[in-house]
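Appendix B, example 12.
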Amino acid sequence: MKNAVIIGGSGGIGTAIVRKFLTHDYNIIYSYHKSNKSLEDIINTDDLPVSIHSFQLDVTDKSSIEKFSDFVDQTFSVVDCIVYCSGIVRDDSFITMTDEVFHSVLNTNLIGCRDVIKSLFLNLNFKSGASIVTVSSTGGIRPDAGQTNYAASKAGLIGLTECLAREYARKNIRANIVAPGFIDTDMVDTNNVKIQKSIGEIPLKRLGKPEEVADAVYFLGSDSSSYITAQTLVVDGGRL
């Protein structure tokens, strides 16, 4: 069995990713920020063929990251896959957006990714090969107005991950990005007129499902994509 660490495993997409890896017999450590209820049914199951552990983590706090890294080190001998799925949205226009709002999104979506992956990097399975998958967004490729903080963080995530892939391919480490479009989670306000218009622009004419993003993440995180690295897989129903 292999071991996966999933950062941000309690949100809509994160929960689907945890469930996907479990169905393929990965032992899991996943982090959550505030609520851990989305996976209570699995955590309380007694007859799982694999192990699953949760850990409350603040990706913007170095001491919290250090404790999480120690927990991973004590629990898994090696890590075969790291998925970074933590992310927040705090939209506003460029001029009126406060420094606090701008930096809070960068700190969670991008700086937190760098800090967490760096803290776990030496746990990766360099001998047999390991993978890193970051969950970016189509907003990091073709941003919408009012999202300078979000767009910058998600574009930065793509650059960070591609650079990791090229730096550490020689060490048997792959790194790829999944860029979801509009996915049916709590982060998407389907009553918003702007969102409704955007859905109309999607060739498949619907929101994506968290499970469809999880399928892409699992593919890039598993041996099924053993000759794929430094790539961005867009999951957006054809909108871009």
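The two ends are 37 Å apart (CA to CA). The chain has a mean pLDDT of 94.
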